[in-house]
Amino acid sequence: MLRFLVLTSLAALALADLGPQPRYLEDSHERVVGGEVATPNSWPWQISLQYRSGSSYYHTCGGTLVERGWVMTAAHCVDRNDIALLRLATEATLNSYVQLGSLPPSGQLLPHNNLCYITGWGRTSTGGSLSAQLKQAYLPLVDYTNCTKSDWWGSTVKNNMVCAGGAAESGCNGDSGGPLNCLVNDKYYVHGVTSFVSAWGCNYPKKPTVFTRVSAYLEWMDSVSIQIQNIISHIWSMAEVIYRVVLGGHDLHQTSGREQIIAVSQVINHPEYDKDDINKGYDIALLRLATEATLNSYVQLGSLPPSELILPHNNLCYITGWGHTSTGGSLSDQLKQAYLPLVDHSTCSKSDWWGSYVNNNMVCAGGGAESGCHYDSGGPLNCLFNGQYYVHGITSFVCEHQCNYPKKPTVFTRVSAYIKWMDSVRI
User: Fold this and answer.
1) 333 part of the active site
2) What would the pLDDT profile of 342-376 be if each residue is shown by its tens digit?
3) Does residue 227 form part of some domain?
4) Is residue 182 included in any domain, yes or no?
5) Measured on CA atoms in the order 256, 42, 376, 426, is the torsion positive or negative?
6) Please, are residues 293 and 380 in contact by the beta-carbon 8 Å criterion?
7) Segments forming the whole domain that contains residue 29
8) I need a surface site. Which of 49, 151, 195, 267 has the fewest CB within 10 A?
């Protein structure tokens, strides 16, 4: 049945050809840098978007409650399960040169140092050129215990991923979606789908290549094979199982009784969003909630700006979120806020600032000691306009080197550029 299905990767930003500078905030896993802890429920439209891993939920991004049944967030926040099936227009002919990849048993975990090979046409070095010929590299498996050590990948790696390599050889840009072929009982199985590497370099010390663990997705693949015509609706219905939002929350680990926890029933990314082209923009998504939120003193709708509103340089704005407080730091337990004055497009797009990475549908803010950081993705940039705070931006990306890098202010999706699209989705 899988003869007409090809296994590939949905998104692998660290492996895609994005250039050396920007990086989506949830890809390196950090929070608001500088600033202070917000007064509880002082930003009542801020939500915590959480995903399920095993029996627990974990904060992954922020978001904004824009209607009782809708949340606005960044598109890259909800593009997380890094595996996809592609249906071919015609079935492949199997012969000596074209064969099916052998899939592992469901749930299989291989031991440390298991023999594996990565194959692909990706770059032969960080910043190098693509290989004209298919290459292979020996990448011994790195077990979960080692790969999740704090000085390795830490909490970035989940148990539905697998690590391999870590020395001179690794995957690199252009290898995304390709197989990690592992030897088990004298036979090679496709144990992994190439997903991401360190933004510091493809073969960075203690940062082995990370793959989607295929054995964690066998049941899903089988269900898609049986009912391939329903693949889109199947994936969207999975949103309710994978994601939830917490409204009215302040502390991620202590409840106050004010919180509302609602499942996400539908994920709608902007149709022009391209996960492999960070400077194209369109990093916006709408989440339909399974039930409508109850509005009160602790849960309020975020005010959206007038369509196409452009705010002036140094306009007063605040970013809010639970992201890391420093590059490489840990998540904040409590919601933080930081003052980030707006940086106008003419300044932010200077060649020694962000240059062509930012376009007119984005907005920059900060650039000093305070900034957004990883796990702030999707959350609001709250800007004061005519005596009222509007959600003018959706936290999108920072510099790959550090969150508060000089002349690299935090970049946001400009909400006023997408009002018409949001209105059309919510009709």
Assistant:
1) no
2) 999 999 999 999 998 899 999 999 877 777 777 78
3) no
4) yes
5) positive
6) no
7) 22-81+243-426
8) 151
